[in-house]
Amino acid sequence: MPTTPEPAQSDPQLSEPSRADYLTLAFAYFAVGVTVSVALLDAGTSITRTLVSALVIYAATPQLAFLAVQAAGGSTVVGVLSGWLVASRFGILASSLGARYPDGRLERTAAAINSFDPNVALAMQHERPADVRRIFWLVTAALMVGWWIGTGVGIVLGNVLGDSEALGLDAVFPAILLAIIGSSLRRRDGLTAAVAGACICIVLIPVTPGGVPILASALGAVLALAFGASAATGESKEATS
Amino acid sequence: MTWTVIIALTIGVATQRLVGMFLAGPLLARRPVLARLADLLPAAVVAGVIVQLTVAEAGRLVLDARAAGLAVAGLLVWRRAPLGVVVVAAAVVTAVIRAL
Fold first, then answer.
1. What pLDDT was estimated at residue A27?
2. Contact (CB, 8 A) for B66 and B94
3. Which chain B residue's Cα is nearest to A13?
4. Does any CB of chain B come closer than 8 Å to the CB of residue A204?
5. A238, CA 20 to 30 Å: which among A80, A111, A186, A206?
6. Is the confidence at residue A25, as pLDDT, over 90?
């Protein structure tokens, strides 16, 4: 099988995103911003509340989860609980970031509030806290530019954009997330964590409420750690013998 | 979405992020083995999000155009294609299969 020539040392893809990469990240969040604002307006939310909720809730999935419960005829309380549950992944991502982010209460608070999937996953590819911080905020800036333009465009144009699914825009976010964890997938422990997390999620989707499958996918990291520890012990034994 | 809902969601989301950063994060940093866990958590959780966005619909597993788009994205990521190429290819493949 032909393979592209690889650099001698491991090349963590996207560890230093290019200008084009930042543009693509902004585009992905543009798509998310459009989706959320159109969904909120469709559900009868006023423009003011759509803007304020994007600003203060500051996460797309809890809003979409609430709307999904509401659309299914569920109560407000269940909707809010569902929103909290799907937000648990941001808590997990913030704890990952918090393990390596530099000191400083105010800045760590800002970083916590800004914890999303792409910026934490890309920042945590770096070992040095200074690099973690630099990449985190560069990616965050790209995401926010895209998100706010997308939110604005969604409000102004609404359904003029037509069916975003016909354009395949709903495939943009999962694709970019896959690319972002690409470098983790090239390491055995990262691959184990991702595959285990994905499998846990698949198994739980049909049998648990929304939010639980992703929360439980975090256990994939625990499995990878346990599995990796035993594999590493085996390897070091081989090396010494 | 009422103001009450907006306030409730805001508090719930922000609290979890702050607890993660200020309580769980420092705990993970305390031991090398837990710091490894912090390294692996994004990959595991993001993989879950990808699955949720690709094969789930209203609590059911479904295999549709999204899965094909993601498969192409996976192939391109493996071949180290630029991020923009991965994203555009996934969207185009998904849209084309839907249009068939």
1. 93
2. yes
3. B80
4. no
5. A186
6. yes
State whether residue B42 sits within 8 Å of chain A by CB: yes
Please list every residue in chain A whose beta carbon sits closer than 8 Å to the beta carbon of residue B58.
68, 72
- Select from A4, A11, A98 the Cβ nearest to the Cβ of B25: A98
Residue A43 has pLDDT above 50, yes or no: yes
Q: What is the mean pLDDT of residues A31-50?
A: 87
B62 domain-assigned:
no
Contacts of A71 in chain B (CB under 8 A): none
**Beta-carbon separation of A56 and B10 below 8 A:** yes
User: CA–CA separation, B6 vs B80, rounded Å?
Assistant: 41
- Per residue in B10-47, pLDDT tens? 999 999 999 999 999 999 999 999 999 999 999 999 99
Report the gap between the CA of A180 and the closest CA in chain B (Å).
Answer: 9
* Overall domain count for chain B: 1
Average pLDDT, chain A: 87
Whether pLDDT at A6 is above 70: no
Confidence of residue A234 (pLDDT cuts 50, 70, 90): low
ipTM over 0.90: yes
Considering the domain boundaries, does residue B71 fall inside one? Answer: no
Please give the residue range of the domain that contains residue B3. Answer: 1-30
- Is position B18 within any domain? yes
CB atoms within 10 A of CB A111: 26
Residue A157 makes CB contacts below 8 A (sequence gap 6+) with: none
- Three-state secondary structure along A44-77? CCCHHHHHHHHHHCCCHHHHHHHHHHHHCCCCHH
